[in-house]
Amino acid sequence: MLETSSINSPPVLVGKSESMQRMLRLMQKASANRYPILILGEYGTGKGAVARWIHANGPWRNAPFISLECAALEPDVVSDLFYTTGKNTSHTKRRIPATFEGATLFWDEVAELSLQLQSRLARAIPDEEFRATDSTRPAFFDARFVASMSHDPFVAIREGKFSEDLFFRLNVVSITLPPLRARKADIPLLAEHILHEIFLASGKASVRWRLSPDAINYLLLYEWPGNIRELRNCLRGATTLSSGPVIKMEDLPLVAGSLALEEVKPLKAIEQKAIANALAKVRGDKKAAAMMLGIGRTTLYMKLQKYGLKT
Q1: Are residues 201 and 281 in the same domain?
Q2: Do residues 108 and 3 make contact, with C-beta atoms less than 8 angstroms apart?
Q3: pLDDT (tens digit, 9 = 90+) per residue, 124-149?
Q4: Of 13, 106, 181, 300, which is most buried by a Cβ count within 10 Å?
């Protein structure tokens, strides 16, 4: 799927946590140049919103923002992006029916492209050009490349799912979005913002929703594996179930139910399992495991010794 749009105003990114503020400062710097940007983060953390924010806050905000959902792209559409006509002429023409000059090309979940297309994309980035399939002449391509990934790129490279060449060409500026469970201080603000969006989308007769203290506490206790997307869907469901305007704990059945059924385990056991799972997933690569766990390699070694795990 290919989506071309203009962005009149940047998406609203909500958060007061230290990690969110640090990310916003990095985004502000990244928006001022045309270097490739790689946005990393779990599913539902808002990578698409970050890409749109960067485009809307940069000098090329009036150019198109072109989002390419790599997992759903038709091969012909991708080929059009690399294909030009005009062999042996002084000018080349692109077959793609859009103006790309100055545009931001957002490759959403770029590792979902075939390795062949990843290789072609990698060759296009350094010289800022696409080479025609029917000509040795380069077709210059004035566009900014932004890509996103939900999986650890190093793990994807080792598993043969992601081109190492493409990773290093895209990874000029890297922005990692924290999962919602790592910035729980932002949950009340995010919930308030989402409820306001629901109010605006519902028209003049809609209810101005707000959360009760017990509902907020439940939102803070939950780990949100689906991140902001899951929080948004949860609140949409709650506004449907609640008689309003106050959303109570019992209006959050999925969240409340999952918490009620969840077994409480000692922190030591949880940490041991997390470390063991991370090491198993990356086949013993301690650097990759530390990155996945969000800790330093030295800290990981200390914990391995503490718990008597193999080093």
Answers
A1: no
A2: no
A3: 775 544 444 444 444 445 678 999 99
A4: 106
DSSP state of 279: H
Domain annotation covers residue 311: no
Task: Tell me the pLDDT tens digit for each residue of 53-112.
Answer: 999 988 888 888 988 898 887 766 666 665 544 444 444 444 333 456 678 889 999 999
Residue owning tokens 């946590």: 17
Q: How far is CA 193 from the centre of its chain?
A: 19
Token pair for 246: 């106050």
CATH code, domain carrying 190: 1.10.8.60
Q: What is the domain extent for residue 283?
A: 267-306
Single pTM value for the model: 0.71
Please, what's the b/e burial string for 124-139 (b: 16 or more CB within 10 A of its CB; e: otherwise)? Answer: bbeeebbbbeeeebeb
CB contact set of 241 (below 8 Å; sequence gap of 6+) = 251, 253
DSSP 3-state of 93: strand
Note the Cα 257 to chain centre separation in Å: 28
- Alpha-carbon distance 175 to 212, whole Å? 34
CA 186 – CA 167 distance, rounded (Å): 31
CA distances from 139 to 78, 80, 143, 257, 311 (A): 15, 12, 12, 56, 51
